[in-house]
Specification:
The protein is mainly alpha-helical. The chain has one domain (2-68). It has helices at 2-29, 38-68. The chain is elongated, with a radius of gyration of 16 Å. The N and C termini lie close together (11 Å).
Length: 71
């Protein structure tokens, strides 16, 4: 049972890191316009940035729990 929980934590953290990396890659490669929609593009970038930080934090939390065996 402990091995299954560890495996699920590893898979979950990998999925979270992939999602966060894809969001960060989108933020760096997107060509945001410089016209009147700048506010909404900034809001979108901010929301995606916060989402990426949350996903990274959750992934690191899962890895920390695996490393310290507090499953």
């Amino acid at each position: 049972m402990r091995a299954l929980t560890t495996l699920l934590h590893v898979i979950s953290s990998i999925i979270l890191f992939i999602a966060a990396i894809s969001i960060i890659r989108y933020l760096f490669t997107a060509e945001f316009p410089t016209h009147s929609d700048v506010f909404w593009m900034g809001a979108q970038a901010g929301a995606l940035g916060v989402s990426a930080l949350i996903l990274l934090a959750l992934g690191l939390l899962l890895l920390h729990r695996i490393a310290t065996h507090k499953l």
